[in-house]
């Protein structure tokens, strides 16, 4: 399932994060040219995550525009749009990709922002069995990468 069809908004409690507090809604981050120049190994130019319930769990629809730098540039896919869907199957604040595509953890969130951390999170054009184009949110030379996204209107996650 690439797009969440069931969406709802929820008011949630600020940190510390607990299992019941999985956020629902749209979170986005557009990185400035200045930010990208300061972090040349960063592979994300724009990222959005839509969290929503579906079939009893919360799913995360992750969309990324890759920056033309870091391993994305070296792999020849800078400027490409990739996506992935992850669910909180076992741990409520860990969102995993089927077919062992890695995961990200929600580190903290409040009414305006969410912070995620990943050690490996696959993005692709064509899902689980896809061989065509794929990348990773993890920056080269790092054991983990953290992204801070801002709550946005729902439409900002549909691009």
The top-level CATH class is Mainly Beta
Average pLDDT: 83
Order of helices and strands: EHEEHEEEEEE
What general outline do the C-alpha atoms trace?
A: globular
Helical fraction: under 10%
Report on this structure.
The chain is mainly β and 159 residues long. It has one domain (23-157): Lipocalin, CATH 2.40.128. Helices cover 7% and strands 43% of the residues. The chain contains two helices and nine strands; from the N terminus they run βαββαββββββ. It has helices at 33-38, 70-74, and strands at 25-30, 44-54, 57-66, 81-87, 94-96, 102-109, 113-124, 134-136, 145-152. Strands 1, 2, 3, 4, 5, 6, 7, 8 and 9 form a nine-stranded antiparallel sheet that branches. The two termini are 16 Å apart. Mean pLDDT is 83; it is low at 1-19.
What are the salient characteristics of this protein?
globular, Lipocalin, 7% helix, mainly beta, 159 residues
């Amino acid at each position: 399932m690439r797009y969440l069809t069931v969406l709802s908004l929820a008011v949630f409690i600020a940190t510390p994060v607990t299992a019941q507090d999985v956020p629902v809604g749209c979170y986005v981050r557009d990185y400035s040219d200045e930010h990208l120049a300061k972090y040349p190994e960063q592979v994300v130019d724009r990222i959005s995550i839509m969290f929503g319930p579906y079939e009893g769990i919360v799913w995360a629809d992750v969309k990324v525009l890759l920056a033309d730098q870091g391993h994305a540039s070296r792999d020849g896919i800078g400027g490409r749009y990739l996506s992935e869907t992850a669910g909180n199957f076992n741990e409520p604040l860990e969102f995993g990709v089927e077919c062992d595509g890695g995961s990200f953890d929600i580190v903290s969130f409040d009414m305006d922002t969410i912070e995620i951390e990943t050690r490996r999170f696959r993005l692709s054009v064509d899902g689980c069995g896809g061989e065509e184009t794929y990348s990773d949110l993890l920056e080269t030379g790092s054991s983990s990468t953290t992204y801070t996204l801002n709550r946005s209107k729902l439409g900002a996650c549909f691009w």
